[in-house]
Amino acid sequence: MQPAEITSRPDERQTADMVWIEGGTFRMGSNDHYPEEAPVHRVAVDGFWIDRTPVTNRQFKEFVKATGHVTTAQIVPDPKDYPGALPHMLYAGSLVFTPPRHITGLRDWSQWWNFMKGADWRHPYGPKSNINVLDNHPVVHVSFADAMAYAKWAGKELPTEAEWEFAARGGRDGEEFAWGSELTPEGRHMANTWQGNFPLQNLGEDGYERTSPVTAFPPNGYGVHDMIGNIWEWTTDFWSTKHEADAPKACCVPQNPRGGPEAASFDPCQPNVPIPRKVLKGGSHLCAPNYCRRYRPAARHAEPIDTSTSHVGFRCVVRSAVSPAKP
Ligand SMILES: [Ca+2]
Ligand SMILES: [Ca+2]
Question: 108 C-alpha vs ligand 1 centroid, how far in Å?
Answer without folding.
Answer: 22
